[in-house]
Amino acid sequence: MLKNDLLLRAARGEETERTPVWLMRQAGRILPQYRALRGRLSGFKELVETPELAAEVTIQPVDALDVDAAIIFSDILVVPEAMGLTYEMVEAKGPLFPETIKTVQDVARMRIADPEEHLGYVLEALRVTKRALNGRVPLIGFAGAPWTILAYMVEGHGSKTFSKARRMLYQEPELAHKLLRKITATTIAYLQAQVTAGADLIQVFDSWAGILPPAHYKEFSQRYIAEICAALPNVPVTVFAKGAFWAIEDFAALPCRTIGLDWNQDPRTVRPLVGDKTLQGNLDPCALYGTPAQVQAATRAMLDQFGPQRHIANLGHGVYPDTNPDNVKVFIETVKEHSTRMRG
């Protein structure tokens, strides 16, 4: 039994006594205890691939920030690696794939990963974390949306345009679908295994949704996200498609419980379009660079826009690594205080 089930009740659309709050990328980045641990290791991948350490940094923000959920410390790019495409995490530059997907032969070489065999370290991290949390808060599992994973596998690194990946959609759409089907099959099995290992809620990150035109988004992303959501009927699923503001109305039909909003979307406009779904977000991460009073004011304004129910407070993107942890605490405390007053 969970001692704090606010997040799950909000995700299911049930009434809550206050708005639950957590932050994307809360596990690490801003916390000195995370940086101290990371400094003793060879790099990011060692931390991700060592279950006891991944569990430790997953729980750090629950202890330090008093958030209403833990999110497992991992990365969306463990999926292409499990499929056979290894990545490196280059300090200060981000992910790099030494080899990329270019041809039908490349796609044929990619396996549909077995979660226990190829991603067992993530599942073990979930199990270790679940035991250590001992019901304090829910545990969130996650994966990248198939389009976002394809974008990295074809491009080979982060990009402002992902023009190589997008060129494939125009020039070789069937090749793209072949790869997307393998990614989707891997992701479904992986997320189902995460639930078995202890995840109480799943979030699907479509980080590069916003660079696709609407027709391509429907064809090459949304349909696969719908498959993933439908394959997880026993837990709430959150879909966060950054930048895809024009797809919000279509998201109302997705078999998910929660829709994440980035900071450019107005919840008052979105709410009538999505029926009874819960919304998550969406404070501008840069608002946390302000004074404590400014952080309080921005947080209250956000909460007022979402209203008192069917809302999970969060940022509109991951917390930035140079954010002052004290301001993060102000954000969290303001959510708790103001949302309680809103229900008074």
UniProtKB/TrEMBL annotation:
Q: Which InterPro entries match?
A: UROD/MetE-like_sf, Uroporphyrinogen_deCO2ase_HemE, Uroporphyrinogen_deCOase
What region holds the Uroporphyrinogen decarboxylase (URO-D) domain? 20-29, 140-156
The cross-references to PROSITE patterns, in alphabetical order and at most eight, read: UROD_1, UROD_2
Q: What is its EC number?
A: 4.1.1.37
Assign the protein's first listed, main location to one coarse class. cytoplasm
Subcellular location per UniProt equals: Cytoplasm
**Matching Pfam families:** URO-D
The molecular function terms of the Gene Ontology recorded here are: uroporphyrinogen decarboxylase activity
Coiled-coil parts of chain:
none
Site annotation (Transition state stabilizer) points to D75
Catalysed reactions, as listed in the record: uroporphyrinogen III + 4 H(+) = coproporphyrinogen III + 4 CO2
What pathway does the UniProt record associate with this protein? Porphyrin-containing compound metabolism; protoporphyrin-IX biosynthesis; coproporphyrinogen-III from 5-aminolevulinate: step 4/4
Annotated GO biological processes are:
protoporphyrinogen IX biosynthetic process
Residues holding substrate: R25, Q26, A27, G28, R29, D75, Y152, S207, H317
Q: Give GO cellular component annotations, separated by semicolons.
A: cytosol
Q: Which PANTHER family does the entry mention?
A: METHYLTETRAHYDROFOLATE:HOMOCYSTEINE METHYLTRANSFERASE RELATED (PTHR21091), UROPORPHYRINOGEN DECARBOXYLASE (PTHR21091:SF169)
Q: Which NCBIfam families match?
A: hemE
Would you identify the family this protein belongs to, as annotated? Belongs to the uroporphyrinogen decarboxylase family.
Function of the protein: Catalyzes the decarboxylation of four acetate groups of uroporphyrinogen-III to yield coproporphyrinogen-III.
Q: Subunit structure, per the record?
A: Homodimer.
Write down what this protein is called.
Answer: Uroporphyrinogen decarboxylase
Q: What organism is recorded for this protein?
A: Hymenobacter actinosclerus
- The gene for this chain is hemE
